[in-house]
Specification:
heterotetramer, A: three-stranded mixed β-sheet, 27% strand, B: alpha/beta, Glutaconate Coenzyme A-transferase, three-stranded antiparallel β-sheet
């Protein structure tokens, strides 16, 4: 059965190791924060200039000058720091962020990512995504496996304008976990209730099957 | 001296066709009062360099309604319907820059670096026509510095020498813009005598700020008020 | 975690032949205790990137006496006779970099900018063999980023998350080196719990610092003690 | 009669206008600070990371962590700020310093400056001079008119390794004030007791004589 948005976020949170500095994209990736176990020491970065994102504020704590990159009001953790956008992207571009978890519209067999131009809508701009995909040590894309009309979003070649070429390391969808390897795409995990054939049917490129193929472990 | 007595005085010499950098991310850390001044002054044909373009009835969005902006250089302009209308009708010119590249191009402008290489955008539409070069086996695109006739920045506190201190995530693009503007105007919520700010903790040294003005009555609108219940998280 | 219990522990994995960035300008803001540790450890064939090379019997100068440094990247090495002797005898390799270019190359290293253009050095020996390019009618030389296996920095205060705060002109090269070192070790005079430093006024965010150690008993020698009579100026 | 070091510094101080941000080099240029009139509002920058150099400290004020680029202990003025070397040279390279006053060993007719390699001595390095000569809006070199063995230091072409090409705007010596113009060198002021011929005799390139030629005004 397809994983819910929350389950995708829960699986994505398993990518995060203790000690990691992580940047979570806008949308479902933001939900990932809710699934990071309390015993892991993780610092979340927001590209508008904050290291150490805390939980959403209570009504009393709301500060109009404290937001994340999704423009949501937030709080800071103990040990947080704020800085300019130049410093923030120096941090990102310089490879200091261990992991970036981003949404996607298409990912190609070579790890190209398209996620900034929505077909039929006005182009809103790349924001910080083009910097993040090159800067983070590891890029994980989370998205639905298929588009609303059932077309594969994992493709031989992206049809939408690219955010970055050869930048994605892993894709987590509602059906599977797939790695982008030198040799092509490798199916690592399958959501409960699906077969390898089910996943291959809605995936553009041919998948290699990992010898350790597992079920996605989510609640 | 640097201290201005009114917003009008602070922006008196801005002409039609000027380029202006405007601090802020979303609508946080924006120079509210200077934007209002520009609206009242009615200066037209502006090139605005700013990460975003405000929202429909607030911040830079107001200058769109009055058609004062001819060209926008930004990384993301999502929250503005009037923007979309003017862009689609061809009234408004738009240059998209990846956010980190925008920050670094402005930083380069203030720092006398004419150009630098960055990986962001390589292989995408935004690098089309630009030089791509390989360093240590990885491709990078050449990006050039950005400067502007004016920079509008907003700080929490400033002193009469133009030193500035920002509050939390209202810092964002303000420090680089202060340095990259040929004429930088800073609006501050608290204007202090020199010596009141700790020299160890100045975010923008006064050398970058040509004019400073104390303002009050900030609206500080919130774009996405997200809260949790008290006690939980 | 980041907090180290001894200087020995903080530098345990530094091997012969390592490259190390060392903060400081002259002998101000130098990581005294980490340099001492390196002296005791006896690690050899080091490439040291630092604005200066200490003085004869203090700071990096001590590592010269013991011949632990094979190559020095610096902007000015004036105050050291042993340096001169080793250089003239060919024991020591030396790369001069203009001070602003050194600062920017290190900043670029930490910021993921592989190369940038700067006017400093154009038409001089230090630009020989380097690409020169014209932007807006002025010539600039292409300079590449610097990184190092380790960075040693010294801060006034730090917290257990690695956030750092510097004191006055002891800041200098320390923040850029913290970001450009693959393994950055910070020695601090005061080590605090997280939450004690104001998030608005952190000079080096903790993400850049892999190890932090509290030290005491600083010598802080003065190179040129210049004073005026009390009351005059 | 030749100007003394103090008189050269005094003349150089006349280059400074109220509101200026100024960087003074090491050596005689540092003396210039003593001759800035109190009614001029001037901010001195030190490239090791300080804007707002104050007077030397009293014994009680000496702070080992507060020095200028010459490594001398100093104080800060009210309104001072300290920052990193990257920020300091961003400030310099970015054209924010109105005036840089530097020492020199040779200046050419085209404004080339040589001041970092002393003949017969070990090369100590360029320090910040190569950045300063390109970054400051205006570069004034102060030096003795002749070398110790009486040779001109203002020359057709520098024999010493350059600090910068075409960077000097004005030369102030113990004999004269000379501008570097598009058309060549222009003699602007002469020290009391010297003739145009005296100055030309110890100057390599041919000097144009400014129509407003004046005596150097120093005490």
């Amino acid at each position: 059965m397809s994983l819910t948005r929350e389950q995708i976020a829960q699986r994505a949170a398993q990518e995060i190791e203790s000690g990691f500095y992580v940047n979570l994209g806008i949308g479902i990736p933001t939900l990932v924060a809710n699934f990071i176990p309390k015993d892991k020491h993780v610092v979340l970065q927001s590209e508008n200039g904050l290291l150490g994102i805390g939980p959403y504020p209570t009504e009393a704590e709301v500060d109009p000058e404290l937001i994340n990159a999704g423009k949501e009001t937030i709080t800071m953790t103990a040990g947080a720091s704020v800085f300019s956008s130049a410093e923030s992207f120096a941090m990102i571009r310089g490879g200091h962020i261990n992991l970036s978890i981003l949404g996607g519209m298409e990912v190609s067999v070579g790890g190209d990512l398209a996620n900034w131009v929505v077909p039929g809508k006005m182009v809103k701009g790349p924001g910080g995504a083009m910097d993040l995909v090159h800067g983070a040590q590891r890029v994980v894309v989370i998205m639905e496996h298929c588009s609303k009309n059932g077309q594969p979003k994992i493709v031989d070649s992206c049809s939408l304008p690219l955010t970055g070429k050869g930048v994605v390391n892993r894709i987590i969808t509602d059906m599977a976990v797939i790695d982008v390897a030198e040799t092509g795409l490798v199916l690592k995990e399958i959501a409960h209730g699906y077969t390898v054939e089910d996943v291959q049917r809605v995936t553009g490129p041919k998948l290699s099957i990992d010898s350790q193929l597992k079920a996605v472990a989510v609640l | 001296m640097k201290v201005q007595s009114s917003i009008e005085e602070a922006i008196k010499d801005i002409q039609d066709g000027a380029s202006i950098m405007v601090g802020g991310f979303g609508i946080v850390g924006i120079p509210e009062k200077l934007i209002d001044g520009l609206l009242r002054k009615g200066t037209k044909n502006l090139t605005i360099i700013s990460n975003n373009c405000g929202i429909d009835d607030y911040a830079l969005g107001t200058l769109l309604s009055t058609r004062q902006i001819r060209k926008m250089v930004a990384s993301y302009v999502g929250e503005n319907k009037e923007f979309e209308r003017q862009f689609l009708s061809g009234e408004l010119e738009l240059e998209f820059v990846p956010q980190g590249t925008l920050a670094e191009r402005i930083r380069a402008g203030g720092a006398g670096i004419p150009a630098f290489y960055t990986p962001a955008g390589v292989g995408t539409k935004l690098a089309e026509g630009k030089e791509v070069r390989t360093f240590n086996g990885k491709e990078y695109v050449l990006e050039t510095a950005l400067t502007a006739d004016f920079a509008f920045v907003k700080a929490q506190a400033g002193d009469t020498a133009g030193n500035l201190v920002y509050n939390k995530t209202s810092c964002n693009f303000n420090p680089m813009m202060a340095a990259a503007g040929k004429m930088t105007v800073a609006e501050v919520e608290e204007l202090l005598e020199v010596g009141k700010l700790d020299p160890n903790f100045i975010h923008t040294p006064g050398i970058y700020v040509q004019r400073v003005i104390a303002c009050s009555g900030y609206e500080k609108r919130i774009e996405r008020r997200t809260v949790r219940a008290s006690g939980g998280n």
